[in-house]
Amino acid sequence: MEGTEVLEKKQQNSPGDDIRTTNYNILGKIFHGAGIYAVAALFLVAGIILQALGVINNFLTAQNMLNIVDAVSMLGIVAVGMAFVTYSGHYADMSVPTTMALTGIIAVQMLQYGFFPAIAAAVAAGLLIGLINAVAIGKFKANPIIWTLAVNYVTLGVIRLVWVNKQIYPDMIAKSQWASDVFDNIYRFRFFNKIGLPVVYMIILVILLNFIMKKTKFGQQLKITGAARKASEFSGVNVERVIGLSFVICALTATLGGLTVTSLSRVGAYYNGAGYDFKAVTAIVIGGMTLAGGRGSIIGVLGGVLIIGLMNNIMTLLGVGTFSQDMIRGIIFIVVVGINAKSLRTLGRDDA
Amino acid sequence: MLNKPNSKKSLLVAIDRNRIFILFTIVFLFMALFAPRFFNVFNLTTIMRTSAMNATVAIGFTVILIIGQLDLSIGTIITFTAIIGLGLKEYIGFGGSIPVAIIAGGLIGLINGLLVAKAKINSFIVTLGMMTALQGAIYTFTGGNSVSLSTPDAFAVSDWLALMIFPLVTPRVIITLVLIAASAIFMKRTRIGRNFYMVGGNRQTAWLAGIDTDKYTIAAFIMSGVTAGIGGVLFAMESAAATLNMGNSSLMYVISAAIIGGTAMSGGKGGIFKTFVAILMLDVLYNGIILFGLGNEVKIFIAGIILASVVLYEAYVSYKHEKVIGQRPELMKELEVQNQA
Amino acid sequence: MKKGLIFLMILAVFAVVFTGCKKEEAKVVEKEATTSNLGASLALETEVMNLKAADGQALIKIGGTVRKVPARPADPSALPETDPLHWWDMEFAGEITNKTNIPESPADGAIGKKVIMIVHGDHPWTTACTNGAQKVAGVYGMDLKIQSPNWDLAVQNQMIDQAINENPDMILLIPLDAKTAPQQARKINKAGVPLILFNTLPDAAAMDYAITWTGPDDFGQFRKLARLWADELGGKGGVAYVQHAPGGSPYFARCFGPVSELAQYAPGIKVLDMQAPGFEADKTMQLVSDWLTRFGDDLKGICAADDSAQSLGIFEALKKAGREDVVVIAAGNSKVGMDLVREGKLHAITYQTAEGDGALAVKTAADWFNGKEIEPIRNLPQHMITIDDVEDFYPPQW
Fold this sequence. Notes:
The complex is a heterotrimer.
Chain A: H1 2-12, H2 26-34, H3 36-52, H4 62-87, H5 96-110, H6 115-139, H7 144-163, H8 170-173, H9 177-188, E1 190-191, E2 195-196, H10 197-215, H11 217-227, H12 229-234, H13 239-265, H14 276-286, H15 298-318, H16 322-346
Antiparallel strand pairs in A: 1-2
Helix pairs in contact in A: 2-16, 3-15, 4-10, 4-13, 4-14, 4-15, 5-6, 5-7, 5-13, 6-7, 6-13, 9-13, 10-11, 11-13, 14-15
Chain B: H1 7-17, H2 19-34, H3 41-66, H4 74-87, H5 89-117, H6 123-142, E1 147-148, H7 154-161, H8 171-189, H9 191-201, H10 203-208, H11 213-239, E2 241-242, H12 250-260, H13 272-291, H14 296-323, H15 329-340
Antiparallel strand pairs in B: 1-2
Helix pairs in contact in B: 2-13, 3-8, 3-11, 3-12, 3-13, 4-5, 4-6, 4-11, 5-6, 5-11, 7-11, 8-9, 12-13, 12-14, 13-14
Chain C: H1 2-29, H2 38-43, H3 45-49, H4 88-91, E1 114-118, H5 124-140, E2 143-147, H6 153-166, E3 170-173, H7 181-190, E4 195-198, H8 204-207, E5 212-215, H9 218-233, E6 237-242, H10 249-265, E7 269-275, H11 281-295, E8 299-304, H12 309-321, E9 327-330, H13 335-342, E10 346-350, H14 354-369, E11 377-379, E12 384-385
């Protein structure tokens, strides 16, 4: 009965409309329209109300908003790259932490030959890890989580075998003051003394990667591959190359993240970048990208990153302890993703 | 299967199926031959005792993998239950605190399972969120303080658990072995156990065959929570203390062992006993590395290489297999013969 | 499964075969190095005391400060956290002990002794610490073997078992956690192996089973540091604490040490907040930025548990907000932290000699082998590094 009703409705609508989009609920509507930015707006409104009530102060100031963006910029850099892996239907790249550590420590070590050789070496190392992942997962279809975990292990082993649990300092290794200063400014340089370079990297990456994902042929192929690999294969897409490329993109953004975090902490060490794997997945998934692949957007991931920043900011302003923050973060994560998944399901856009 | 495969192939298949046993034997023999002070009763007992916690935790985790899900929260469940098990002892004694801790583990598993099966959220997300939330809960409720037994009889239980009854066997090892044997038999020999494989192998087919897939998924998560709880509580009792991150290293360890043991992340394949042997193999390997006086960097590197090789090997095998799907080798051979003629 | 059992049975057969071969080898390693000479060992004392750490400081400085131990209150935990005596059990653990079954010193010199050192995990700090230990062991000609469990309790327990199995002359242990130490120490004690705990202050119960504990007096250091801080702050204003990661005495010492000290010394100083963001610069930066938003000009001082990543995060946040006036102190002394002191950013850091920490443990072991009287606790010297003397501590140890 219901079916025929819907069908009738459908006939009244324009022919291009999806039959299922007609019966969404309010929650679904919000998610469908504004995506994760609805949640972000919710947090903002909550912050403004709290400020109006006098519970927290200085929330809605340019400086505070800038602080939030500044704090999550490195996470943003890593997350938008890893989003390609998620988008391709391969969950996450768990080798990101040690990719960051390895590229960082290699850059510091190569600073003795100058700044540009250092960057080149770091990019080469990142590219190598990306290619290894690309071949194993793209071509041989190794399980992405386990494979990248193994790569993470091996890379960590390599770093520790070569540098024997030591940390190395850019200013001690660089031969010229210039190289050391420039390296220090990978993170520290600020435009107008306000906007940090990592924010700029993040914005450029978001624009660039959003363009790649939405407007290019590769992006379209990636979408089909992520949503339905077999179908994509049969329609003549070079699936192996497409998936491989997504891992390479992820490794390259991780390289940028690694250089930034190394520049910030002024040491090349094996523990730089630890925890960025799960942090990035959290941001990506909160940003509305489903682990099933092929759904979501880079803009959404940016929203997820910003929500994490907003959430931390409001909780610290409220005086919530770090540990309770963890607890709340975990629960909010599950709830947001759960609602998102449910709304997608009721919309009939996802059966995962 | 239909026509008798040639003997060379069947040997390869046998080697492939039992590769974890072969791997274990090789590692064990290598260490027995070359590692100093490896081969004696005391050291082998040490290995058994070290493996006890991860072996217990791996039971539930293997079932989770068999059913095609993932549980990232086992590490924090270990810590959480360990803290409950020791923390409540002062008030209700071990007789009360151990069951409470294990039930707490089961409850966390139940929440995970409900969120995965009923709310239909991806298990990677559910358990990642659970991991974060639980770690926060642990820090909040302990106030950053580890938990230990302060009573004079604190060491009695811990001594008993570590008592060497006869070579290689302490009560904690016995508990572990019994649990492994029982659950291995349950998974392989009972219909309910086999159903887990069905659900993991092909969810749709299992559902069509009348298996309540949701129920099995939830059951798997509860099992994972319970075994993580048992592992955590026993480990804490033997250490006579529970620290705030004692389970953190278990996750990677157990995942590696399960995969090396031949359990597939995609579900429907694997076995508890094989995971156990894989854990023993890793422990023998690490034990030997320590005896050689080598550092963690070597350990991490070798573990990574082994894991990577196993994953790549499995991927390569299925890659080759996929290439010939739909082809009939005997027809191809006939064609070849015709072409030559 | 059946095949698995067969494999295991084959192994058992091998086992029987190999046990024979192994035993002889073990015997050769035993009893060989006890030809040491007590006189020669004692003569090395001056050479050891003249050793220098990588930063040019004397590697071993004993008896810097004798601390006063107040009487233990009946129930310290009943007192408020701002009362110094609330932390008595943690700060003065080991001052009252009931030593059990401590082995007699052989008093036959340290030369050629076999010592196993088990640390807590791999870190640049640990590398420096073991370097210091090796320097002292090298002079005494000790056979020092160092093992690291990579922050894993199960592995540390395994290493202890394996160390006992090796039957060394001494085990030096950094317990992973204060609360796990008693059982670990007890196990070593029961096996009859002499034990010295160092670096991480264990639960008092563990001290009963060890010859002694050597390491930094974290509470004492931070009380001193807090006074420097309070003087700079003028005894008033709001302060916030960036804490150590939980699960050990530094988490408490590097926060409640100053808190309880300042409650007496400078009651005008108000605690605004305390948080543990971990050792990540970006997380600390966000935390401090949020603090500056929340407290504004009320925030006058920050105390950090770490002088590298945490401090860098703090100064990034301060720079963004244009707040040069906030007084920051931290636990030292890494290169990054000392650079910050030299730049005039960090007001003061504690001198936490990593090499000295390892060296003192080995030196104490040597003293015990030499038959000297060992006090129940041996603290590293206390010192605060400020811009006035920071140059003396270059090049950094790690």
